[in-house]
Amino acid sequence: MMQLVEIKAAGRALRLLVPEAGMPQWLETAGDANAPTPALAALEALVSRGDNARERDIIVPEATLLPTGGMGSFQWPGLAGHRDGRHFVLHFEDWRIERESSDAACLKAREPRASLALTLHLALHDDGVVVLSSRLENQGTDDFQLDRMMAGSYPVSGLDHLMAFEGFWAREFHEVQESLGAGTWLRESRRGRTSHDRHPALICGTPGLPSGEGRVVGAHLGFSGNHLMAVDRLADGMRLIQAGELFEPGEMRLAPGEAYTSPKLYICEAPDMATMRAGFHAHVREHVLSWPGGAMKPRPVLLNTWEGNYFNHDLASLKAQAEAAAKLGIERFVLDDGWFPVRDHERAGLGDWVVDPRKYPNGLEELADHVINLGMEFGLWFEPEMVNPDSALYRAHPEWALRLEGLKLLQSRHQLVLDLTRPEVSEALFQMMHEVLARVKVAFIKWDMNRDLTHVGDARGHAATARQTRAVYALMARLRAAHPDIEIETCASGGGRADYGALAHTHRVWTSDNTDALERQTIQAGLGLFLPPEIMGQHISALPNHQTGRRHALAFRAITAITGHFGIELNPLALTDVERIELAAWIALHKRLRPLLHGASTHFRLADHDGRSVYGVVSADKAQAIVIVAQRTVQVLEHSGPVKVPHLLAHAEYTLHLPGPQTGATWFRHGPPTRALFDGSSLYAGHSLGQIGFRLPIMLPESAVLIEIRRDTNEEKHHG
Ligand code: GLA
């Protein structure tokens, strides 16, 4: 008997037809939840009609939840495997639908010939995000070789344009666009981490995607190991998005009784890009992140010591930097790489997670207590998965590194990767970190991972990336269980591990090692499509910029960083008095605006135009808004277009202000805008700001301005 599954939330319904044998078929993804439930017989007739040119017994649907081949469906399979070469055609039957609630269900089936049990999980959230995952259990008496198992699929029609993300160290989340063709679009990542070049996310839409117009379907895979994303084209021209883990040959061999569970695939189908972004942000906040104490506290402004000190840890200077930081208004002081022996450079020390007595003769407590007494939290850098051959750990246990017999060990940044699938390795790492955390009052860990994985073999010589990735998650979970108040930052040479799988165990992403404000404009916009701003690390760094050599006004650096989890990445003792005063004012401004920037506000991004980007936030009560206009290049047109501010109350009146330490000199080129615009003396209707907008003077390239819009509290009086 065919069955209909309806999953409903927020007035929307997903509908699938579950056959007696074969795979569940997608009927619709954006149905009306209140529409009457269609009669099964009528549905069957609808979907099995067609020309059936080949006169097959049955028409096999193609838009299935997890395509398998060999029984009349010929598209890219999302599930493939075999039992010693046999049972390579998997045809599931006996479907049972287990409802968890109206908005989630488990579809369960068996493959009696291959002795497999399959579970497909689907949930639709109020935020519009669909979450898919799959599980396969070997119920046979010998091993089942699983070659591929996607989390699930999602059908898309009429959106033949695709946006994906490429990049490199210090230039992550670069948006690339292409038209989908007649074949399968496929992207595989084999770096053993989420990666800089193949971030596991894509968006299907219509040409001109980033401008924000038109329906989109965004997909994100929550996984930090090898992965793949596919967009298959079906025989009727429809597209099927699939994503899941990528296995090395022989990697996923299920012993009798063993099961494989896929990572989660997150899909947000929305009428426009802004709604998609808001859906993903809400979902990450509500369902991915888990905060110490159950709720996010205001994001503490932090100082990270890396660019200001590198490996040169001078205790007296660090203490003085902490004092200067506290005076600036910094709330968390994070000690980066270099605190353990003999880490004077990147060629030694990883793996020895004990305090270097040369640099910290009285232990780390001395610095940590100093920081805490100044009213700040103390944070500490670790790179747990790695080992330098020049370390006590490696000298004692060279066999602990991932290796394959007979193959040369490949180093990257002079380091090797520890085999966390060996219980004794994970145990040793836990004990070393636990001891530091038990002694030093650490509120925050910067968890780094600075190389791709190569020759990923375990003790038996089997491929181990899948298990290594899960072992990292397990170590994070164990440390958090032992130290429940600690927050963790996920960093992999910057934004190389910024997926929802990692974020289920962490609380912040180090967005990029590139702190250049101009580059950060685009890097943050890319990642910001999937991550809410408050968990994206955004720091002001020194001049000239260490990655690019550029020199940007403090205002441009500050306005670029101010929207996210704000911080500084410089030695505060090296600031001039003028810089110190201005920096303190930016930090104070961030703290004042933080509830708006990080709260349940409406975020918007206008279409980039003539080198200019506009990002804005409107408070939930629409009484306050921020608009940030950044000019990246010299404009080509003689006049810049109006800046329109959506989402305000049409009939309310607002005033415009330039808050904080903004001086015109840093951003406009030919004279100030009409003074009256920003002095709070003029009132503008929300409707006018939305429809007509305001004009700014020609801006300097590589500059930005932050405009605060406040609802006029004397409105009644004016009208009275
Ligand atoms: C990586 C990180 C940096 C810094 C260094 C330390 O590159 O992304 O922020 O922590 O490692 O070695």
Could you characterize what this model shows?
With 720 residues, this protein is α+β, with helices and mostly antiparallel strands. It has 3 domains: 61-288, alpha-galactosidase from lactobacil brevis (Beta-galactosidase, Chain A, domain 5); 299-596, TIM Barrel (Alpha-Beta Barrel), CATH 3.20.20.70; 603-719, Immunoglobulin-like (Sandwich), CATH 2.60.40. The chain has 15 helices and 35 strands. The strands form 6 sheets. Strands 5, 6, 7, 8, 10, 11, 13, 14, 18 and 19 form a 10-stranded antiparallel beta sheet that branches. Helix 7 runs parallel beside helix 8, helix 10 (517-527) runs parallel beside helix 11 (554-561) and helix 11 packs parallel to helix 12. The protein is globular, with a radius of gyration of 27 Å. The protein starts with a strand and ends with a helix. The structure holds alpha-D-galactopyranose. Residues 306, 336-337, 381, 448, 450, 491, 493-494, 510, 513 line the site of alpha-D-galactopyranose.
Write down the Rg: 27 Å
Main pleated-sheet profile: 10 strands, antiparallel
The CATH architecture of the largest domain would be Alpha-Beta Barrel
Q: Determine the structural class based on helices, strands and strand pairing.
A: alpha+beta
Give the bound compounds.
alpha-D-galactopyranose
Q: Give the DSSP E fraction (strand runs of 2 or more residues).
A: 25-35%
Q: Quick one: how many beta strands? A: 35
Please estimate the helix content: 10-25%
Poorly predicted segments = none
